[in-house]
Input
Amino acid sequence: MKQNVWVLGASWLLSLALAGCSGGGGAAADAGRITVGFSQVGAESEWRTANTASVKQALGGADFKLKFSDAQQKQENQIKALRSFIAQRVNVIAFSPVVESGWETVLREAKAANIPVVLTDRAVKVSDDSLYATLIGSDFVEEGRRAGRWLLDDSKQVTGPVRIVELQGTVGSAPAIDRMKGFHEVIDADKRFQVVRSQSGDFTRAKGKEVMEAFLKAEGRNIDVLFAHNDDMAIGAIQAIEEAGLKPGQDIRIVSIDGVRGAFEAMKAGKLNATVECNPLFGEQLAQLIRDVAAGKPVPKRVQVQEGVFTRDQAEAELPKRKY
Ligand code: GYE
Output
């Protein structure tokens, strides 16, 4: 592992030296700057928009030259972007993988080219974890548990069954898989709780609304709780619930994840019951990690982002403080 870090660092120094030797105004102007290729998932949610702004700001500073690419939620676009970064011989690749699997080949290509890879936000499933230097992101399993614990706590007075519908994130993505797992870990221990429908809303408002409409059609008034893997889907679902003549936050209790401004507004209006924070503003932390990786310094394999849980009674006081 140590040796690996050293090799990656050395390769960065070498590529800097080569850039210096190649002459020309551009290369000279870039000397000392770290060229980063960043492949973002897309623009599917408020969370993502805030994350993109944070990353662009932090990597827009003097020490970096940023090549930014938006994958529009498609893995094939990300693989293309990564290959293009490799061909351009960037110093570091950073990317937020849309799904967990299917990365081995392209990550091996990056490794063969001695380009270190920093994962942001979402994890990958690979047989060899030396294929990436580090992952900075949230603990999605814990977020799912937090949503489950909130529900448990909010259901103390409920004696009968609690019928839950679940809006999952993008199929095969780390946050969808992990949030579902964490939520179940907590609620499965209590026989009252039952997930009666569970389907992906792809982390978007439009899909969240559409799938919630289908849930309402199938279950009628027999839905007690909605667990949405992100706030945007919950906000879309709130619309569907209102259009069905029901009161979101009351007839159907709703818990979601992210803690974006729209969620705080919905809580303030009494339509959303709780949101579990997932902080997208890790641009500065990422920039420091990239500096360290590029310099060949050892970095932790996993870097955690700090976050909490917020409820309706806190919404009014918290809203002005929210930065995303
Ligand atoms: O929760 C969701 C976004 O990967 C943590 O992706 C991220 C998730 C986030 O679309 O809103």
Observations:
- The pocket of beta-D-fucofuranose is lined by residues 44-45, 47-48, 121-122, 175, 203, 230, 232, 257-258, 278 (CB under 6 Å).
- Residues 1-29 have pLDDT under 50 and may be disordered.
- Residues 38 and 94 are 5 Å apart (CA to CA).
